[in-house]
Write a structure and sequence with these properties.
six-stranded parallel beta sheet; Rossmann fold; alpha/beta; 21% strand; 42% helix
Length: 129
Amino acid sequence: MNVIVVGLGRMGTGLARKLDRQGHNVCAVDQDPERLELLGDGFAGRKVCGVGIDRDVLEKAGIERASAVVSCTTSDETNIVIARIARDSYRVPRVIARMYDVSKAETYRRLGIQTISTTDWGVRRACEL
C-alpha cells in the first residue's frame, strides 16, 4: 500500500513509523525539515519537505499512485483542503483527515471524508473511565 502522511507531529510521526514497519510504502510530508529528520535512520520511507496543500509537493510525494492519504496537521482547515485535493483531484481511494474541532464532523461526513479525532476519543474514553 502506498501511503502519504502529511503533518509530522506526534500522531503523524507515529503513524508513518508504524506503517513503514508494517512494510507499507510510506511518504512523509512536512514543511519542517527537522520533523522529517526526527523519523530517524530506521525509517525506510520517503521524505518530502513542503506544504501539504501544494499540489507540486503532493505530486513529489507520489499522490498519483497513492492508496491512502492521511492528513494530520495541526489545522482542521488544512487537513480538509488536503483531503479534498487527494479525493477530488487525484481520486485517492482512502483519505483520512485529523479533526480537532468535533463540531466539524458532520461537514466532513457530508463531504465524504473519513475523520479521526483524538479530542472526541479522549472525551469518550475519560467518561468511560
